[in-house]
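Task: encode each sequence below as structure tokens.

Item 1
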Amino acid sequence: QDWKNLSIVLNKHENSPAHLESFQKWHWQNVLERLIALIRVLGTQNIALRGTSDKLFEPNNGNFLKFVELMGMFDSVIKEHIRRITSHEIHNHYLGKNIQNEIIQLLATHIKETVLSALKKAKYYSVSLDCTPDISNIEQMTLIVRFVSVTGPFGNAAGSVNIREHFLEFLELKNSSGAGMTELLLQKLGELGLDVARRSG
């Protein structure tokens, strides 16, 4: 209630360790939320993230950093983050390729878990496999699942039936024979917790 000294009290609070620590946490959380959202959009649109440079405001630094630069023109959180980076106030900034890869992996894991959850509710599912060598000449097998998803009361107009098809992952194939592919497939389905036994009822 010391209103006459309010400016002094506020200044003291703003420079207190507790306030500065809380502000730092708030800043990093807001930065991370925006970067995750940006990577989700780029991934959804099948747009490459990186270029030949990994620094802000350089030519050919990729779509991710170019969009960060664009966001900094209109978003106060990213603008402040860029200011801290360019003034060398901070060196760890969440814009590097390692953080990008980690966010991509976390998003991929979440998507995969969502797909597997829906697949396990389906009565039947099928698997499609395709093989192709990668750039290092290692045979890669794609694992794709297809199943029927039923939502809402069956037979009710409010419910819906959808055929869904999802890519799950690439599998390194060391034995490209039919037996080798089958063995790898059964192993992977077991790891994913997918039932390969015939169901009844």
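Item 2
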Amino acid sequence: MLHKEGLRYRVNARPIEGLRRSADVVFLKQKVVVFVDGCFWHVCPEHHRPATRNTGFWNKKFESNQRRDIETTRLLEEASWTVIRAWEHEAPEDVARRVATAVRGSTPG
């Protein structure tokens, strides 16, 4: 959908050299980065289902993922990047529209 919009980007790339974090979609020139977060791994408020076995391990893992997401967003925003986070269950058309709006310089809705 993004390509059909005429947008060109990198996939699974590191937006900032030296920052060991990869984003799903990166627009280097426009400094827009997109993360598509999985409902299970990133604790979606609508769809996440807690683990029923080895809960101590999984709870630590989920908390670690959430802390890293917050830190990643903060670091990128401090470096003047626009960060878009989408849940895997979101309609692709809606996410593509948000991304295209951000890349073209408007405030995403």
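Check on item 2: The mean pLDDT is 92. The domain at 10-103 is CATH 3.40.960.10 (Endonuclease; Chain A).
End of task.
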